Amino acid sequence: MLAGCTQDQLQGYLPTNPETTNHTSRIIGLWVNSWIVLLAVGVLTWGLIIWAAVAYRRRRGQTGLPVQLRYNMPIEILYTIVPLILVLGFFAFTARDQAVIEEAIPNPDVKIEVFAKRWAWDFNYVNENVYSPGVQAEQLPSGPIDTSNLPKLVLPVNAKVEIKLESRDVIHSFWVVEFLYKKDMIPGKTPANYMYFIPQEIGSYMGKCAELCGEYHSLMLFEVDVVSQADYDAYIQGQRVAGFEGQLGAEFNVNQNLPGNGGTTEE
To answer: Between 73-102 and 24-55, two packed helices, what is the crossing angle to 10 degrees?
Structure first.
């Protein structure tokens, strides 16, 4: 059965592959192994249910209720201890993998500051001192979404990337689907949330907001392009030539009365 599985089946039908980033293989492993354990538990549970239904069914000629049993301590201990072991096991493996994924990368090659806003994204390339302003995705009259003007985040392949996640208004969530990881962007949170990863495959990847944030939440889309270092340098230079030099900072935030920015609050 295992030899007949396709690659999609072997990685649990996740929409990526193990080499997309330095973290995707770890996440795929956690996902697939969890399902293997759960499937084994499910088969055992279904088997016991079917066995009990067949072995203790009412036979022809029998009347009344069968002998009622109570307080079977071995069984009660079993169905208490086994779920506890499963929960602790899932927690331990999840905590182990999350600790690795969340660990800060020392001396990142690329630092990005992402501002989420209803309903688009601003990208600051911190080291290069250029930015890319984003606009909301547009739905065409025929139905599909026009992807030609989506906000675009460009990253060099095999570079250590640090992303600082901030919001200009409400809670959003930064999600690159094929990276298999997402993280909330909470206005006024100090320190801000960060993501660290190494993109390992050149290509285009779709991103979206994963936190319901208002009327046009479904149109809050963006694209991540992983390119060669030469193409990345050319993109940065193109942003400079186009006049996008500098940074789009917190001065454009909608919430101007958050703690620490000198504004006033009302109760």
So the answer is: 170
